[in-house]
Amino acid sequence: MGWIVGNRKEEPIRGDRRETAAGGLDAEALEEENDNRIDDLGAKAKFLKQMTDSIRVEVESQHSLLDKVVRNVVNITRQFVLDAKRSCMLYC
Fold first, then answer.
1. What is the per-residue pLDDT across 70-92, written as a single tens digit (0 to 9) for each?
2. Please, how many CA atoms are within 13 Å of residue 57, restricted to the half-sphere of its CB?
3. 1: DSSP letter
């Protein structure tokens, strides 16, 4: 049985599963398997953090660009209104 992560199916990590005399799994093998899974989760968490940081940087960049566009449109609109008033004063 595997786990679904994103769009890809991952097989469970299988360590050196040594069985005890009672038929259970060796505690050392389970501990090693847990350590491997913790390392894997740590790597995935690091990847997600890097992705969210990249998204944040991109969003900030796009907000900055939009702010510049808005300032330019406001400046052009103001200039247009001033020019229209001057034209009206001269020709109206």
1. 999 999 999 999 999 999 888 87
2. 6
3. -
User: Which residue type occupies 2?
Assistant: G
Nearest of 5, 3, 34, 41 to residue 17 by alpha carbon: 34
Per-position b or e across 19-35, b if 16+ CB within 10 A of its CB: eeeeeeeeeebeebbee
Domain parsing of the chain, residue ranges: 3-91
The position carrying tokens 């060796």 is 26
User: Do 9 and 2 touch, CB atoms closer than 8 A?
Assistant: yes
Q: What is the pTM of this model?
A: 0.56
Query: Residue 66 is inside which H or E element, if any?
Result: helix 27-91
Q: What's the sign of the alpha-carbon dihedral 72, 75, 77, 83? A: negative
